[in-house]
Design a protein that fits this description.
mainly alpha; about 45% helix; about 90 residues; single chain; 4 helices
Length: about 90
């Protein structure tokens, strides 16, 4: 497993805290509890982007925007697409 330096939320500056909270606000409530949390309770995959807050926000906000309830796909269809992509990429997320 690769080790990636991350910045815990307890040490985050304003820009990083904003990026984490702003992207999180775009996700459905079911995503509030991380599958693979870090010791400070954030998502491990989100924390892996903590050195570049702009990249963190844009990478995860994109997916959050794609899950928007006003889009024509249902939540079930979003989850199905996400599952197929994850399996295709051999990703456990």
């Amino acid at each position: 497993m690769t080790w990636i330096r991350t910045i815990p939320l307890t040490e985050a500056d304003e820009k990083l805290r904003w990026a984490v909270e702003a992207q999180k606000a775009l996700y459905p409530k079911e995503y509030a509890t991380p599958v693979h949390p870090t010791p400070d309770g954030t998502s491990g995959i989100v924390a892996s982007h903590s050195l570049i807050p702009d990249a963190l926000y844009h990478a995860f906000a994109t997916f959050g925007a794609l899950l928007a309830p006003e889009l024509p796909l249902t939540r079930r269809q979003h989850e199905m697409i996400t599952t197929v992509v994850s399996v295709t990429n051999r990703c456990r997320y």
